[in-house]
Amino acid sequence: MTAEHKESRAPSHSTPTGRKKHMPSEPVVHLADLEHYEQDSGPNITYQFVVKPGTMGLLSAGRVCLTGPTRKTCDIHNSWDQVYIVLSGNGSVVVDGKTYPVHSGYIVRIPKGTSHGVELKDGDRLEYCYFNAFESQKAIEAFCGRNR
Question: Which of 38, 45, 85, 122 stands 20 to 30 A from 31 (CA)?
């Protein structure tokens, strides 16, 4: 086996389903094994880190799953730009007071300083990944202070 194709020897742990749960340093992990975090933004919403803030320069990323009815409170980030990539389901995003229907395959660009939120009707489900482009280490610290 060449160096490029060697199997990873990083530690792993088993999940309750028996699938190996990889440590955060692993380059390949399953979505179900990502670390969860909480944010006070609305009911029926789960959050997971894909790339924890401060681990890959000024980038962070996460996965958000929502089940309607719910509303992710409108928010404004003044120190980072954000992009959503909708993976599955359907719902609406609110950007600067305008509502846009979204479903799988949609991309939402949210420049810093832009009000944004998400709304789902009863029975709707939505899954998306977000990507944060922080302007500084101080902005990462502000993000970490509001999410636990």
Answer: 122
CA distance 67 to 126: 7
CATH class belonging to 28-140 = mainly beta
Q: What is the pLDDT of residues 14-59, one digit of tens each?
A: 444 454 554 556 788 898 899 999 988 889 999 999 999 989 999 9
Alpha carbon distance 135, 78 (integer Å): 9
Output the CA torsion 70→29→75→133 (10° steps). -160
Nearest to 116 by CA among 83, 90, 85: 83
CB 91 within 8 A of CB 73: no
The sign of the torsion formed by the CA atoms of 133, 137, 142, 147 equals: positive
| Amino acid in position 64 | V
CA 54-63-102 angle, 5° bins: 130
Its pTM stands at 0.80
